[in-house]
Each structure stands twice: as structure tokens, then as C-alpha cells.
Amino acid sequence: MAAQAVRVETGWRTAPGTPDVDASALLLLGSGKVRNDGDFVFYNQPSHSSGAVRHEGKRTVGGATTDTLAVDLARVEPAIDRVVLAASADGGTFGRVSGLYVRVLDAANGAELARFDSSDATVETAFLLGELYRRQGAWKFRAVGQGYGSGLEGLATDFGISVDEPQQPHAAPQPAPRVTTPPAPQYPQPQQPTLAAPMAPPMAPPVPPVPPAPPAPPVTQPVRLTKVTLTKEAPSVSLTKQGGTSGAMRVNLNWEVRKQFKGWGSKLGRAVANHSDLDLDLCALYELTDGRKGVVQALGNAFGALHQPPFMQLDGDDRTGAVATGENLTINLDHKAQLRRVLIFVTIYEGARSFADLHATVTLQPQHGAPIDFSLDECTVPSTVCALALITNTGNDLTVQREARYLVPQRGVSPQRTIDHAYGWGMNWTPGRK
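== TerD domain-containing protein ==
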């Protein structure tokens, strides 16, 4: 493989009832095990300490979704023998996932270097799809296609990862069977012989010093595979308790048209007929600890800034639904001490009269911590503005509260002024345009 850096793309077709699929990678020694839990890259631990492997996240276009890992082969440490490429199904088995594949692309020009299509899955909940391995100083790709019935946890623990998962009450632990090919045999490490002490001064040449052990990634706590879903019954989560109070937190808004006057819509606002011009805007009201208040939104080009107030930024404005990742807002939690509260909301700029016609999904992905997601699918009023989530800093805790609050602006009152009034922000508003 001539490429110095590659992108590993796991893809599948989405349809009602299809489980969510997550890509992951394990960096293994020649023994077939990780050095420690830092050698596992996945949605809750998206970057390896060496910078060699990074989880880039998902993209959905039409009815197809991909989850991508970036691998800089030149930065893979010499101690690492291979990088295993895996996928796990959340909420079902791979027998319900169609069109599953993994392919390796040259990061420089996008050329496809290798591809493996999996078509015979049944009850598996995790797969080893392939691996990148060293041979004679070069990197190569090998398809594997080994399935697990024990999910991501079973796959990870097989390679030496310690998983910190809460025990389910009233359920005896059951070992999940391996579904397909058994794992490759693990060979013991060679042992140094024990030498008896010499009876006379040694005449043999001196023993060379033992070479230093290869550097290992920093020791980490056991990994958590949990995802957090906020509901009406459990509407809030502490980022402090989740360990997600530093780094960048990405807020993603994705949507689909649920019903229309003609036909049906598809993912990410790629609607037809009367909703072809659907435009949702992800926005945020903020209040800093020094009393300053403001809004981050595409309207008026108020995109914000990450490294200076307000420490949050929109990545752009998806005005047609053609952007595969929806709309995204990034919040710099390294400056959480300067954030008092942040209200994330969404407005319908054009293309629909109400959220009642739409199904939106919101995901908050802290750089350190479990993904937090919830859906917006219970609107029963002619609402054009919806409060999504309220992030509050009390000084001792940073919490995310699911709002899912649909508001109906009065005639002549903007959605922004409506959301401001409902949450007591107290700002002055003037007309704006894109």
C-alpha cells in the first residue's frame, strides 16, 4: 500500500428498523493484544494518543451512511503490528443491516485502494471487517469478516480492553457465543530463562543491556461503551460525571421529512415536492459568566468563534439539505468556566410550516465522554422554533437538559425573539437576513 495516510470507510444502507453501526479500530502488538485501553479508538475515545488513528464520524447521503476512521500510517508507532478495523451494531444485529462494506481510500486523492463487502451476516452484533498490517516494511490490507455475538464489549475484551459497563439488575451474565470464524490463536510471549548464580567469577562476555520497552500510550480508565439517550422520563445528564467537560463538544442536527403533500422525503432534508427548499437553522443563545449575552446563528452571519468569546461556532449553513452531515455547532468546553448557560435551538427558515412535518435527531458528542442523543418527533402545534437543549454551568457541575420545547411565535414576532422571551434572555432584536 503506497499511501502514507488512508481513510477507512465503513458503509451500509439505512432503512426503517436498521440498527445504528459504529466503526472502531484497535492497535495491536505482535501478541495480538493492545498495550492498554488507549489503543482502542471508537466513538467515546475518538483519537489515539499518537495521532495515528482518529474517528471522524458519520455521514448520511440519501439512504446510505458511512462511519470513517482516518489512519496516518507514517505515525503508527513501531511497536504496533496491525490495526484491526471493526464495526458494531447498536440496537439490533448485522442480519438487519444491508449493504455492509469496508473500503480503504488514499487520504491524498480519494482513490479506492481496497474493499470488502459483507453479505452473509445473521445474528452477529460486532464484526472484524479487516485489518491493516505490516509486512516487509510496507502496510497492507487484509479482509477478515469475523463475527461476534457479544457486541462491541465482547470484541474489545478479546483484544485486552477493559470495559467499564454497568451491570444489568436481575440478569445473570451469559457468555455470548462466537458466531463465525474463531479468533486467531494468541501465542505466548517468549520467556527469558532463569540462570543460576555462577560459582566462580564469570569469564563469559558481558550480557548486553535489555533494550527499553516500546513507549505505551498513557494509562487510561476502563473504556465506557455507553451512549446516553435523553427522554421525557430521563431528560438530563451531567457532563461532569460523564467526564466530558473538556475539549470540543459537537452538536449535530439532522432531519428528515416525515410527511408531505406529495410522496415521501428522505434523510437530511433531501426532500421532494413542496419541501425541496427545506432550510433548518441550528442556533444557540449564550450567556457568559461576565454577563455578556448573544446568539450564534447563520442569520446575520453570526457564526461565532471557538477560541474567543462566545467559544462556540457554527460550521456553516446547510441551506438546501445537500450537506451530508446536517448542521453542526462546536462548543469549546476548555472555556466552560466562562460559560454560564447555552440554549441550543432550531428554527425553520423556509420550506415547512411546522416541525409537525419533520423528524429531527440531535446528537451532542463531547470529545471526552459518551454521545448524547435525542429525537424531536412529538410536535403537535404549528411551531417554527424549537428549544433543543439547555447546557448549564453551576460551577460544580455542567449539565445538559433535553428541552424539546416547541414554540409558536405570535404574528410579527421572530422565532429568535420568541425563544428569548420563553427563556428570559432579555436581548434586543433587529431584523436580519442571510
